[in-house]
Specification:
alpha/beta, 3 domains, six-stranded mixed β-sheet, 19 strands, about 20% strand
């Protein structure tokens, strides 16, 4: 009898162990299946987010603007400038504000501001972008870093950048006479280092960078073939690979669509309102509140729903220079430009007097103003030659082809 009871107890224990083993196995299987499903869903969501979702597309549907920042790094891994900007994919416009490398930003409003170069030295690109966010009070959706070698590669990919040289340059790696030239990658880098304003090296480097950006944009605006190239997936991937950013394929496609449909109103470049504070640091005025207002105003511009320009000829301050050798021509054309509404007060002679083709130069990043002058004067040659120390928006350089020259 006792033997049977012991046998039954052993069977019960064995059955219990078997049931427990089955339950444990079922639990593990369920955990595995659930984990597999969750991981699968996670991968699907990530792939959808990475390859199909775009904050730009979302903002376009809501008619909103997005903020971004671009940091430029030289060959020595030192920042030489940055831009903070706002973009509207719905209205096909981009506005950017230049930030010199010696500009001091706040990484914490309770502490003193720190120059961009120092921020990068201590915390890298993340620290710089964080300081831009805190200083501007804006969420920076897209953060892009480009070094000089990558700039060189990008310029070569788009077939070079057309530049205009006002005064001869005779440097070891940069030698050009007055006139129009195509700058390829190596020349672009030499141009960035070509500085002539003693004591203003930081801001002049940003001017040269602005020249490259705006002249590249003007090249796209005026070249239908290049616009078509910008639509190709191959070009998008090649250029995107030259930047370090959190841009994803759908973001890049929308950005290139903007470039492919660009006009003289697509891009505007502004300089930051800043001055030297009591610590000797270049600082956004009014503790950064002026920069916030500047970005807000820029957002209003890129969000304009009308495609018609709100600018008139009276909004353009113009210098007229005579490059023909014909006596008194700049004076006569300056008077005519005033009759047409331009603020054309200054005039004089260009440094050469046998210029064949007339040219319009933009001084301060307002591309649209230069095209207003060019269209009024029937000129196709438009270039950026930035110098924000000057008060005029644009320069009209008269060549022998100018249509109002008496034959």
């Amino acid at each position: 009898m006792s033997i049977k009871k012991n046998y039954d107890k052993k069977n019960d224990k064995s059955d219990y162990k078997n049931l427990k083993a089955i339950r444990d196995a079922n639990k593990k299987a369920l955990v595995f299946v659930m984990s597999f499903i969750i991981c699968g869903l996670g991968i699907i969501i990530f792939l959808f987010y990475y390859f199909f979702y775009s904050d730009l597309e979302k903002a376009k549907n809501k008619d909103e603007e997005l903020y971004f920042a671009v940091l430029f790094i030289d060959e020595s891994d030192i920042p030489y400038g940055a831009y903070v900007g706002v973009i509207s994919s719905l209205h096909n416009r981009i506005g950017i504000i230049g930030l010199p490398k010696n500009l001091a930003l706040w990484k914490n409003k309770k502490e003193a501001n720190i120059p961009i170069t120092k921020l990068y030295e201590t915390g890298g690109r993340r620290e710089v972008f964080k300081a831009i966010e805190i200083t501007t009070g804006k969420k920076i959706t897209y953060k892009i870093t480009v070094n000089n070698n990558q700039i060189s590669d990008i310029v070569d990919l788009i077939g070079g950048t057309r530049m205009y040289i006002e005064e001869p340059i005779n440097e070891e790696n940069l030698s050009f006479d007055i006139g129009e030239w195509i700058f390829y990658g190596n020349k672009v880098l030499a141009y960035l280092h070509y500085l002539t304003m003693a004591g203003y090296e930081e801001i002049e480097t940003l001017y040269r960078l602005e020249d490259i950006i705006i002249n590249s944009m003007i090249g796209i605006i005026q070249n239908p073939e290049l616009k078509n190239i910008m639509l190709s997936k191959d070009m998008r991937e090649k250029i995107a690979s030259k930047m370090k950013s959190n841009l994803r394929p759908p973001d890049i496609k929308i950005l290139f669509d903007i470039l492919a449909n660009s006009s003289e109103r697509t891009l505007v470049v502004e300089a930051i309102d800043a001055n030297i504070n009591e610590r000797g640091l270049l600082t956004p005025i009014f503790e950064g509140s002026a920069l916030i207002k500047q970005l807000d105003d820029l957002a209003l511009y890129v969000g304009l729903k009308t495609q018609k320009s709100e600018l008139e000829t009276e909004d353009v301050s113009l210098i007229v220079l005579n490059g023909t050798g014909i006596g008194g021509l700049a004076d006569r054309i300056s008077i005519r430009m005033r009759y047409r509404g331009f603020k054309a007060g200054e005039y004089g002679n260009f440094s050469v007097n046998n210029l064949n083709e007339s040219v319009v130069l933009i001084r301060n990043g307002q591309i649209e103003k230069s095209f207003i002058v060019a269209k009024e004067c029937r000129i196709n040659k438009v270039y950026a030659k930035t110098d924000r120390r000057l008060l005029n928006n644009a320069v009209l350089i008269l060549g022998k082809d100018y249509y109002e020259i008496t034959r």
